[in-house]
Amino acid sequence: MTAPDRAALREHLVRTMISGDVATPRQNNLLHYRRMAAGNPYYLFGLDLKRSWTERDVLEVMVERCGVDPDPAHLYGDDTIDPELTLDALEAMGDRIGRAATRREAVVLATGHPSTLTPVYQAVAEALRAAGCRILTPAAGWAYEVEVSYSAPERRRLVYAPHGVAMLESDDGRTRHTHDAAPMEAMLEELAAESGDWPDLAIADHGWAGAAGEAGIDSVGFADCNDPALFAGAAEGKIEVVVPLDDGISPHHYAPMTAYLLRRAGLG
Fold first, then answer.
1. 38 DSSP 8-state letter
2. Per residue in 34-73, pLDDT tens?
3. Coil, strand or helix: which one is 70?
4. What residues have CB less than 8 Å from 199, skipping those under 6 apart?
């Protein structure tokens, strides 16, 4: 599709609630901020954060980098993502992807939101491959067990969607949401041990992005307002770019954003 200009994309982001007034509950945001500050691994996304983060510190960085409501007394209801911050970060991500294309870098792409964000990653992967980049796909088939509430542990397997986007799949063939860093860690371990190849860039979210950033790889990605770890990682210099957005919107609504990103990268 034809890429919109910035003003048109801003209107689209707000209208579809990708940013602006979003549907993510404020109480869920604050719960995640509290758990990240407490050092809960599920909310750290594979990052070893160096400073001591209080819940108030987390809220402040989310105000600065995501645009959530700054009022600490706002405990319930919906929250916000500043569309200007979304657009600024999207342009910064496009600039980094553009450099990857020019340099023909090795790139890994992965998502913990396969049901919504996969088309974004696939479009970027296809464009980068056409520009001469190597899309790395290590550790296909690697599997582990995860704890699932009120049931026995489930086995999850690392698979690749067309164009080389990593994600998790359960034994019933369904793709799965994940915060885990372990799959990206497995990918990097295989690359280090077997191929000698190493990513110049990771384009990812959740623990996939966190683990790549922790390993010293240039990492750019997306994060919702209830996912503070990547924003904290960016504040500490471990993540290069985090685009704030609601990551649970119908996939087709991300198409104008994807077109804008690729045009900014010089690939659209």
1. T
2. 999 999 999 999 999 998 999 999 999 999 999 999 999 9
3. coil
4. 105, 106, 107, 108, 136, 188, 191, 212, 217
Q: How many CA atoms lie within 13 A of 192 on its CB side?
A: 9
Among candidate residues 228, 167, 234, the one with its CA nearest the CA of residue 220: 234
CA pair distance 263, 258, nearest whole angstrom? 9
Write down the domain spans for the chain: 6-264
Neighbours of 118 (CB within 10 A): 20
CB 131 within 8 A of CB 76: no
- The per-residue pLDDT for range 85-131, each reduced to its tens digit, is 999 999 999 999 999 999 999 999 999 999 999 999 999 999 999 99
pTM for the whole thing? 0.96
Among 78, 18, 63, which residue's Cα sits nearest to residue 254?
18
Nearest CA to 33 out of 71, 62, 73 is that of 62
Q: Which two tokens stand for residue 24?
A: 């993510």
Structure tokens at 19: 């940013």
